[in-house]
Design brief:
Metallo-depent_PP-like, six-stranded mixed beta sheet, Metallophosphoesterase_sf, seven-stranded mixed beta sheet, hydrolase activity, Purple Acid Phosphatase, chain A, domain 2, Calcineurin-like phosphoesterase domain-containing protein, 397 residues
């Protein structure tokens, strides 16, 4: 194995960028998004409660008050439970957060299905036909719960996405070899050791030649980082295992983030943030979140690399944006994560809108192959509906 590493950003510069970019700008955006989420969450709970209380006869009297109290508690459960996981990892914190996360998916789908039920009522009223809304309500709510059950088990099921790419300047030694890419495991207080073992065993069974991890390994909550690093340390590849950080690593406190990187490094996972490494004739570039979230910073980072146009170059980057910067600098393949392909139906159209057509799947930008993965984990509701938890197997032909 031949390797040559070029460091673009030093450790101290990384620390400063994590603080000023991660701890300031990113957290302002993040907290603002959570505030907007909470407002929408309240509206959804109110509408679902009014629908259920109106059309399900069994919900009356004391039951209605009890249901209202439960909705009030659950409505304000997710955000506090999420923040609580930042500094504690107890049985109670895990139970509350998991319950709140599951409920967030359930209430979304119940809202979606009762909206369909209300549309049915409007159509029947319009044509002058009667409909038993109590039966319709129970059928549609049961359907919503069935979808959630499917989504829960589907999220835990690992799928292999196989890509065969033709790149002119790929060294002969790399043809037919397996490059494994995955991202967004989001290990934390919902996705834990059992799923980590499952992912590692699945990848090892594929006999990879190199493994690339595209960020958001952890979700930002407090977990037994040492244990999780050891589990990931069981990953085996001929040419090694490499990772970059994503936005969820930036959300963690700086000292914790750096210690996590050290733990992963101690278990033979190489951090490529701000680095270029030659692996048997292919340049692997790690554009960590702090190097690539800003377009100008990403441009400066790529420019410093002095990439050779006659050499195959693969860039790992978490968020599928600023593609034009790298695509005009002799990049052959860019690998992204972050979007989860929206994770749950019917929102799959949103990533492509936000990321200008690169929200999911294999695309091209000029001569550059671009692949955005749906990720292998979940955040928020532990459901996947209309998407899969995928491990990407890339071979050059």
């Amino acid at each position: 194995m031949s390797t040559l590493s070029v460091d673009i950003l030093g450790v101290e510069e990384c620390k400063l960028l994590v603080y000023y970019v991660g701890m300031k700008d990113e957290k302002i955006v993040f907290y603002s998004a959570l505030g907007f989420f909470q407002l929408v969450y309240i509206i959804i709970h109110v509408l679902v409660f009014l629908f259920v209380a109106t059309f399900i006869p069994a919900i009356s009297g004391y039951f209605k008050w009890l249901l209202g109290l439960c909705f009030l508690i659950l409505c304000f459960s997710f955000v506090p439970a999420f923040f609580a996981t930042f500094d504690r990892n107890t049985f109670f914190s895990r139970l509350v957060y998991r319950t709140a996360a599951v409920w967030s998916g359930v209430i979304i789908y119940v809202f979606f299905f009762i909206s369909l039920a209300s549309a049915f009522q409007l159509i029947f009223d319009f044509v002058g036909l009667s409909i038993n809304m109590s039966i319709v309500a129970m059928v549609f709510i049961a359907s919503a719960l069935a979808v959630c059950l499917y989504g829960y088990f589907n999220a835990a099921t690992l799928k292999i996405k196989k890509l065969q790419l033709k790149i002119d300047n790929v060294p002969d030694d790399w043809k037919k070899k397996k490059m494994i890419f995955f991202s967004d495991t989001h290990f934390g207080q919902i996705i834990g050791g059992l799923q980590a073992n499952k992912i590692v065993d699945k990848i090892n069974s594929m006999n990879p030649d190199i493994i690339l991890i595209g960020g958001d390994i952890f979700d930002g909550s407090v977990v037994n980082f040492e244990d999780m690093a050891k589990r990931l340390g069981r990953l085996k590849a001929v040419h090694g295992v490499y990772f970059i950080t994503g936005n969820h690593e930036v959300y963690t406190e700086t000292r914790c983030r750096l210690s996590v990187i050290d733990l992963l490094a101690a278990n033979n996972l190489v951090c490529l943030d701000g680095k270029k490494i030659d692996v048997n004739g292919i340049d692997i570039v790690g554009a960590g979140y702090i190097e690539s979230d800003d377009k100008n910073r990403f441009f400066n980072f790529i420019s410093k690399l002095a990439l050779a146009g006659n050499k195959t170059t693969v860039v790992i980057k978490h968020v599928p944006e600023h593609i034009e910067v790298a695509a005009t600098n002799d990049i052959d393949l860019m690998l992204f994560g972050h979007t989860h392909n929206a994770q749950i139906f019917p929102f799959q159209f949103l990533p492509d809108i936000i990321y200008r057509g690169y929200g999911y799947g294999l695309k091209k930008f000029g001569r550059t192959h671009v692949y955005t993965s749906s990720g292998v984990g979940t955040w928020g509701p532990p459901f996947r509906v209309g998407t899969v938890s995928e491990i990407v197997e890339i071979t050059f032909v």
